[in-house]
């Protein structure tokens, strides 16, 4: 029953406003009002959290926030990694502040520099950035996490932050999923937008995907439209030919952002597969052609599976996909064994799933 309710809420949240009249009567008569009431309650709580009366903390280093106004699939994590590497190349040691996968602790946060803690997203970032000077702090009270990290490692003023990696001192803080985190002041607000799902449903969670109203774009310093190379008709993406981005559709998304108060630069981003690596040895990179003539079981539980499917299609012959439920997760451990025995193939997993699996590639 719980799984069916979860699936129903997911379908309703993904239903465009124009398609609501076509929903079954019981869904419209009972479920939608209930979800709408929950959305209002969550929105009121968010408004109180963002009140000017609440204390906001300032850090002695620049703070760059990466966030969004909708749930999942907006490219926040790749952007956080991109920024961390960019600062590292400039000689600035970055501090990543995230709250994912929090495990309760006496002081309310976990400080992590090496090893594992938190959820799969954090673990992925830890592996991916193991060859950089990045430090990661995990906890809901990110101001407290930042203060402890700065006290432990020290910090460098902005004017002298470059080319100081040897000292290990922190030169910049990157606030992961920070747009709705009001307790920390920030110098730059980067807002990520999923170009494949631009606000056909404008209701708040759980009735829809919105975390804030569209007018929140007015707070942005930079807007990045992610998956810009995939913005086209879905039927084109079903073809095996290369997708051509629709300038008209991208222009419409940009216009809507600007109409809702954004007075900042708008950029476009895309993800391009470059290599795979063993989950336990991220420094060991393998070329994509090792997948040639292989049967591969791909697993995705990310916010926008359409983008993942297209990425797989660029590397492999993609012949089909299906949705799995929460109780069907055990099949993910069963099928690799079947494929390995029957077809002499190796399991290849998407990098977001490899955190909880023993030996796999991503």
TrEMBL record:
Organism: Eleusine coracana subsp. coracana
Biological or metabolic pathway of the protein: Glycolipid biosynthesis; lipid IV(A) biosynthesis; lipid IV(A) from (3R)-3-hydroxytetradecanoyl-[acyl-carrier-protein] and UDP-N-acetyl-alpha-D-glucosamine: step 6/6
NCBIfam families, sorted: lpxK
GO function term, MF aspect, one: ATP binding
GO cellular component, one term: membrane
GO annotation terms (biological process): lipid A biosynthetic process
Entry keyword annotation includes Lipid metabolism: yes
Name the UniProt record assigns to this protein: tetraacyldisaccharide 4'-kinase
Keywords assigned by UniProt, alphabetized: ATP-binding, Kinase, Lipid A biosynthesis, Lipid biosynthesis, Lipid metabolism, Nucleotide-binding, Transferase
Pfam family, one: LpxK
E.C. designation(s): 2.7.1.130
Top-rank taxon: Eukaryota
